[in-house]
Design goal:
The protein is mainly alpha-helical. Helix content is 45%, strand content 10%.
């Protein structure tokens, strides 16, 4: 039923776009390469093993995707609400400290 609700679909799509752009902007500021995305996730090159990034983000209350060999230094982050993405972007720089 929710898919038949065009207003709701547009609302959710807008929130995903907002959160995705927030993350892409933060990654660009940090000089990190990200794959082009029209989806509800961003795939970016962390430059460190995914497992190390997973531990960092878990300690901050976030779960990121598994490794996708051979891209073992790339991270997959699903887009949450804009509020969640603000929190994620807030801790993102510490992952590269």
């Amino acid at each position: 039923a929710s898919l038949m609700d065009a207003e709701y679909v547009a609302f959710v799509r807008g929130r995903i776009i907002e959160g995705r752009q927030m993350l892409l902007d933060a990654l660009a500021t940090l000089g990190k390469k990200a794959a082009p995305s029209q989806t509800n996730f961003v795939f970016f090159q962390a430059g460190k093993p995914v497992e190390q990034m997973q531990r960092y983000f878990a300690a901050k209350g976030f779960t990121i995707g598994r490794a996708f060999p051979p891209y073992t230094d790339w991270c997959r982050v699903s887009i949450g609400t804009p509020e969640e993405m603000k929190q994620f972007v807030g801790v993102l720089p510490g992952a590269f400290a």
